[in-house]
Specification:
By secondary structure, this protein is mainly α. The chain has a domain at 71-139. 50% of the residues lie in helices and 5% in strands. It contains 6 helices and 2 strands. It has a two-stranded antiparallel sheet. Helix 3 (74-89) runs antiparallel to helix 4.
Length: 146
């Protein structure tokens, strides 16, 4: 859907629609207030372009300080997001959000358990046992012996 929209819109400051041999990210020259005044979609961007844009967005979002250009890379952010999503919504939701076509890919990377997972499992187990004990005593609320 987004690709159709991209291909249908003229490129800013180029005056034409994208062509098959255009790069998705290409060199641009901008004014100090970030307006594009020159672009060449036939040339590839410098290797660090995506990284610079990533940190600029993090800075705008208030996640890193001004001028910080290391410490929160895209891979680490994706992994953290996927791990937390797996914990909250399950591995199937994480797989879909990450765009994995095969669930085994997600399980192989994000299926590991850590200390927080173990603590949650033990708390759930203890709560279930207390509920069973209370039900066996004919009591609705779990009680602890003194």
């Amino acid at each position: 859907m987004a690709l159709k929209a991209y291909l249908g819109e003229p490129l800013e400051f180029v005056g034409r629609r994208p062509e098959p041999d255009d790069y998705l990210l290409y060199p641009e020259k901008r004014t100090p207030d970030r307006r594009v005044y020159w672009a060449d979609p036939k040339k590839p961007c410098a290797p660090n372009t995506v990284d610079r844009r990533w940190y600029r967005m993090l800075e705008q979002a208030g996640l890193v300080g001004h001028g910080v250009r290391s410490g929160l890379n895209m891979h680490r952010a994706r992994h953290t997001f996927a791990t937390e999503l797996r914990r909250v919504a399950g591995v199937e939701a994480a797989s879909q959000a990450l765009g994995h076509s095969d669930l085994s890919t997600t399980l192989g990377i994000y299926g590991h358990q850590d200390q927080r997972d173990l603590e949650r499992a033990m708390e759930a187990f203890a709560s279930a046992r207390e509920a069973e004990d209370a039900a066996g005593r004919g009591n609705d609320s779990p009680t602890r012996p003194d």
